[in-house]
Amino acid sequence: MAGEREHIREIEQVLSGGQSARDHVVVQSWLRCVDTHRLDPTRPTEAYIVPDTQLREHREQSERLIAIARSGLETLFRQVTGQNYVLLLANAKGVTVDFLGDPLFMDQLRTAGLYLGSEWSESRTGTCGVGSCIVTGEAMTIHQTDHFDTTHTPLSCTAAPIFDTNGELAAVLDISLLRSPQPKVSQNLALHLVTASARRIELANLMAQMHSEWVLRFSRSPEFLDVDPEAAIALDASGRILGTTHGGALLLAQAGGVDWRLSPSPVGQPISRYLDMSIDDLPSLTRGRPTEERLVFGRSGSALFAHAIEPQPTIGRRALVEAVPKPISELSGGDPAMAALQVRAAKLARTTIPILIHGETGSGKEYLARAIHECSQRGGPFVAINCAAIPEHLIESELFGHTAGAFTGATARGRKGLIEGANGGTLFLDEIGDMPYPLQSRLLRVIAERELIPVGGTQPLQVDIKIISASHHDLRKLVAEGRFREDLFYRLNAASLTLPALRERTDFEWLLDRLLDQHARLAGRPARLSPAARLALIRHRWPGNIRELANAIDLAVTLCDDETIQPTDLPDFAPPHLAPSTPPAPLVALRAPSPEDERTALLDALAISGWNISEAARRLGVDRTTVHRRMKRLRLEAPN
């Protein structure tokens, strides 16, 4: 309490114009806290975590940056392993959209606000690393009693800004401690590390966005030019600047002999305004020449080493980004929802970002996970485990393995678990919502620290695995009920993919024909669908999704005579508990309706419903996509 009173007196002294030994940036922030934000130093406030729905919105808006920054965060976290640091990636509003921390201290980190979803804006929290960095655009350390609010004075927070390619602040990278040595100078190394990581994230973002343009990277030292450049800019074919890293904008201003604080943004300006060069000089700055010979000179006379990277040849700016490898492209026949999912999955396949696949039972979650693995270029195996299918008393040893003697009857050399077996490859955790709660913290450690300790062991094993998980449960609901760890959920849900139900897909008949061909080949006999059987399959709502469809085709191929599948070869599709609430047409027709009959029935339903597709679907007992498919097949168009 005495320390809090002394801290409040110091703030009041600064507000009254007194001198302070604090850094200028801290003093200015204290003044803003009172004059602008109307905060009261005598009224401490607890850390604020935004509601889950808002956090989801913030993360979705920052999704691209989170993906690009993830590798940099993991590298930085490894550099400070064992020093109790927690890393926060906050958006421009101060909301933490990604973080890395020790799973053993999650409760303490959440209480302190060093957690996913915490808001560190200066207007809410007062002087702090993230909030003050957002206001000033400068890297800084806010150490212990530098904080305005006494709730946060135990913390030491070091933050660096991350700017987008237009020079606008996009995010803040923060590295914090719950407790730290007293001298502020103890965080100088942290300040250097977080600043370097922010610079590399900006560079990665520029390279990702400008892959089809010339990129010019700079360094003051030839030794680091190709491996760790200081800054970069992107140029169009006319030599105008399309984007820069923050360091690139500063270097250009210095090279051009202008004050970067007063000069306009270099974006849109010709490169010749700052450097004594043109677009025609870029080919001579590629790796075809020795590094020490790749010099450029500024209008002010300064010299820099430069590395030019040629545009990647593409047909259209996004052609390479949206190219979908074959294993993923073969999962659909043109359904719009699946097409968007496939593009997203292809982008995620070659990253280490954990993926959470949502979808109803039987919708193809494991097929998607395998396809992602096949496109990942990882040399290790694909290992799948169904968390709901293994007895709870066995799942721990199945996943994590055990050492000799850990259980009665254990072999002398112990047993390798599935996680270790997936090293170098992909681990697919199906029905992750059914994983026992006590084991979830162990899985969190594997994901966060890339190491595991077998049951009965003490020495950690390093693992390199891509985690893909899936569930038909609503994991957010399980989190709210206390049955699933919130920190594990957000770690697994770094990227999410949602598979549509089979009844919602517009490529049903493509999938039907594909499965029929596959099962016919496996059975070693040709098979085709009669019109009546095809209609029965189209009309069914498929609560079991692709798995149910595959089983139905397998049975039909086995039972059919004369190579033609009839309705009598199909399963009984209408158990009472799955029957639609409105009376549909019979699910299995005894005879095939003629195209004229089908056309007449569809036209009648559309006419009665005023060509309202949803109403027509309800009357026919099918879904909207089925009506659209039939209209396309029968060449029916709504009247003008």
TrEMBL record:
Entry-linked CDD domains: AAA, HTH_ARSR
SUPFAM superfamilies: GAF domain-like, Homeodomain-like, P-loop containing nucleoside triphosphate hydrolases
Pfam families cross-referenced by the UniProt entry: AAA_lid_14 (PF25601), HTH_8 (PF02954), Sigma54_activat (PF00158)
Keywords: Activator, ATP-binding, DNA-binding, Nucleotide-binding, Transcription, Transcription regulation, Two-component regulatory system
SMART domains the record matches: AAA
Every Sigma-54 factor interaction domain range: 331-558
InterPro entries documented for this protein: AAA+_ATPase, AAA_lid_NorR, ArsR-like_HTH, GAF-like_dom_sf, Homeodomain-like_sf, HTH_Fis, P-loop_NTPase, Sigma_54_int
Protein name: Sigma-54-dependent Fis family transcriptional regulator
Source organism of the structure: Mesorhizobium shangrilense
